[in-house]
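User: Look at the shape:
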Amino acid sequence: MKLFGTVALGLVLSAGAALAEYPERAINMVIPYGAGGATDISARTIAEPLGEAVGQPLVMANVTGAGGATGSVAVQNARPDGYTMLFARVGSHSVNPAMKATLPYTLDDFRFVTVYEINPFACAVSSNSEIMSMEDLIAQAKGDGVSYSSSGVGSGLHLAGAMILDAFGLEDAANAATHIPQQGGGAAATAVLNGTADFLCTNTSALAGFVSNGQMRPLMVTTAEPVVGFDAPTAASLGHPELEQMVGWTGIAGPAGLPDDVAAKWGEWMAEAAGDEEFVSQMEARGSIIRVMSPEEANAFIQTQYETFRALVDELGMRIEG
C-alpha cells in the first residue's frame, strides 16, 4: 500500500510538472482559409507578437476547403492538449453552422480561448467597373444581372452578398444574383479583379490593400461611421442600419476538452500579443477593431452571431440541407 501511494504521488507530481511546462514544443496553428484572405492576414499579422508571448514557435498552416470546414475539422479531431489550435472566423463558426445542415461539427466541438478582432464588411468592385455606387449595382442586378464572389459556399462572404442585395431591394437575392465561390478570400478578391465576378462583400481588412493601391472601388461599408481609407458611404447613411450586424471576427479555439489551465494561458498570451503597438497599428489601418475577449465573452459573442445569421439564413431561404 505504501509503495502504491508513493507511485501514485509520483505520477501526480509528474503530471503537474508536465502541465506546468506547456508549451514545451512548437504549436500548430491552423488557418482554415487561403492566403490573402481576412483570416490569413489577421493570423500572420499577429503571429510574431503572439509567438513571442507563447515562447515557442507557431507553425502556421493554411488548411483550406469547404468554406473553412476542412481546417476546422482538422482541429476538432486533434488532441485537446493545446498543440493544435485554430484561427476561427465568422464564416467557419457563425455562418457555416447557421447555413449548413450537414456541417461535420458544431460550436460545442470547440473551446474558444478568445476573439480578438472585429471588422466591418465592405462591398467593392474592380476600379475598371462601370458600377460606381450601390444604386448602380442594384440597377444592374435588376437588369442584366450581377455576379459576386465568395470564399466558398456557405461562407460569410456568400451570406453577405445575398443579404446586402436583399436589403437593397433585389427580390429573391439568394437566387437572382450569380454566386461564384472561390477557395478563400484572396481568391474571391482576385475573381473581381480579373472580371470573373462583378463584386464582392468582404471584410475591410481583406480589401484595404486593393483599395489603397487603386485596384478596387468600395461602394459601401457596413458601419454607422466611415472607415478610414474607404471613401464610401456607410450602410446607415444609405438607409440600411440593419446591415451593421454584418461584421467579421477572428478568434482562437482548440478542440472541446481543452484544459482550463491551457485556456487560461492563451488568455494571457493574447492579451499581451494584441497589445503590441505595431500589430494594432497594422490591423487598424485595415479597418479592424482590436478587442480581446475572455473565453466567456467570446463564446457568448459567437453564440449571438450564430443566432443572428441563422435567422437571416432562414429569412433568405439559404439553408443548405445537403
User: Anything to note?
Assistant: The radius of gyration is 21 Å. Residues 295-316 form the longest helix (22 residues).
